[in-house]
Predict the 3D structure of the following.
Amino acid sequence: MAFPENFLWGAAASATQIEGAWDEDGKCPSIWDVAGKHIENGQDCHTACDHYHRYKEDVALMKELGLKSYRFSVNWCRIMPEKGKGNPKGLVFYRNLVAELRSAGIEPMVTLYHWDLPVWADKEGGWKNQKIVDWYLEYVQAVVEALSDQVHFWMTFNEPQVFIMSAYVLGNFAPFQHAIFSFKNCLRNMLLAHGKAVSLIRKIAKTPPKIGLAMASTNYIPDSEEEAGLRDAAEKSFTSQVGEGSNGMYMDPIALGKASKMLRRKLSAEDLRIISAPIDFIGVNVYQPANPLFKDTKYSAEGKPKSALNWVIDGRCLYWTIRQYYERYHLPILVTENGMANPDEVGPDGKVHDDMRETFLKDFISAMKRAVDEGIPVVGYQHWSILDNFEWCSAYGPRFGLIHVDYQTQKRTIKESARYYARIIATNGEDL
Ligand code: FCB
């Protein structure tokens, strides 16, 4: 079987990681704008790829590659720079971006929250404060009213695991807190915000919406494809302590209307009703398998290579994530992120020879094809990322882009892997 005819081959990015213009046109600071000492090499996201001013050039490059879709996020701080106060200029930027994408024939996919919490909201407790549900809905309403004539794909959240667990418990992502006793409150607030946003979007969108969210899906590859091996891996991925924390705790309430073990006392029947408002797809961000990793060696236990961030490169995790998610939740899957960091440089010939990323693409897209061949509804694949960008606390070291960015000059160079990806797109996945 081939990829479906309307398969959405695309790429992804997020506002904080590429836009820059951190204090322009009425925008307020986000928790990442003030992350200061937590960012490597004293760097910041204030200019990033300057996409805010260069979006036309960037969309032209996407068009050159033949992308069918582009997943980006709206920065809450541009839209609601003060509590209860909107900023029309912020909406204008995203309307222009969407218009540019549409005229290039590229389907825009909007993530409503990719971690850029306004500092004003953080000062009032951020995700710990139940009022955030209303603040978030007010923001979502402004965005949906402004963009939904042209935008059909909506993701309420990117990787809740990270902006709750890493940000409020482990303290290694903004706002860098160790608020372990607030963890369940944060999670409940996020789940309610998600469910209410789904119902709101469904109600006010000007064109029929497709709504989901993007999960940081860390799933296990089974040891064997016998029945027992499959069951064991699925259990580990969703209901074991690790699996519940990384997948089940979030998705079970959303897609099954059931609280996982940890949340049983936290979510009422009414909460679950709100949280489980029907969605249209599940987005999965897939980078590496959850199987035990051997961090100090160059290769994984099974001899698989690793990327510049030491992440194991094993395409099978994309197949298993898609399959396990589909078997548990029975919803179409959109691959919302998948990619690798590589020490890419522009060579003397003016090109970026990132062979490793070509191998990566072949490996992961072949694995995704297995899922498609087996009849699992996979709607699209958004490579992370369109541009090299600000990789959170690791700043500008890890280069994930299909397009190289020289941060001194902001010059963009299409990498050789992107040319390969363009061929995959042009042949709808035939030429792998
Ligand atoms: C994901 C994030 C994305 C990017 C990639 C590398 O966890 O959603 O913003 O940082 O990892």
